[in-house]
Amino acid sequence: MQTFVAVGGELTFVIDETLERRWGRRISTRGHDRDPLASSQQRAMATSGRRWLVVTLVITPPWTQRSWALPVLSVPAPTPEVSRRLGRRHKTVPPWARHMRRVMRRWLPTIEMTVIGDHTSSVLELGRACARRGVRLIAPRRRDAALDAPAPPRLAGTNGRPRVKGARLPTLEHGRKAQQTAWQRVRVRWYDGRRRQLEVTSGTAVWYRIGQPVLPVRWVIVRDPTGQLEPRAYFSTCPSARPDVRQALDHRNHL
């Protein structure tokens, strides 16, 4: 993978689940799982096969303007029923993803790295693990999720334990509907290769859960000014980075 790193550049990875549709008595990890190709928002379809968690490297060859996703690492991610049948301790997708990111950082200890995931990557523990290892995680975020302001400076002479977070912030859905929200218009390359105009707004906050350290994040809301597309929200574990809606939306073209 060092071949794809330019001087001072970075690598972008996409992590997602895939279903290998195979049958056979000797395939011990085969189970029934949701089929993303046959399912819709109204109806979920299950298909027999092997579920894999795959990490792909996103590159843009010089002879084309389309990005390619090259598989570089994969692990089987069986369903809970398959794990029970095999007598193994079941491991969900976020722990597998955390382990795979740790392996990638061991392979590339000095390279700036960005990992883009789907909703299964929107986990606090996974975000904190990426932040500790210097990996930028970008994933969707629920628009009704709770976010907080950073803890205010501690005043001299204050008793008790220091605060870990500040006041509760309005939800991203509330910010999307607020009249005073400032939107910036950007043009991004869409599925058909054409340019599409979207509106984006961004800010910083901390993600907190009781008993766990806070995670500073940058949140991004993207909406279609024509109203044809559903608004989406994302977060990044690098709050100081400039919000780039092109990178946030890039996962939709590779997952």
Helix and strand content put the structural class at alpha+beta
Number of helices: 5
**What's the CATH class label of the largest domain?**
Alpha Beta
* Residue share in β-strands: 25-35%
Outline, from the CA principal axes? globular
The second-level CATH architecture of the largest domain is: 2-Layer Sandwich
Sketch the major β-sheet.
10 strands, mixed
Residue-averaged pLDDT:
82
CATH topology of the largest domain: the name is Nucleotidyltransferase, domain 5
Helix residue percentage: 10-25%
The assembly state of the depicted protein chains is: single chain
End-to-end CA span? 20 Å
Low-confidence stretches: 250-255
Number of strands: 10
Structure description:
With 255 residues, the chain is of the alpha+beta class. It contains 5 helices and 10 strands. Strands 1, 2, 3, 4, 5, 6, 7, 8, 9 and 10 form a 10-stranded mixed beta sheet that branches. The protein is globular and about 70 Å long. The C terminus is likely disordered.
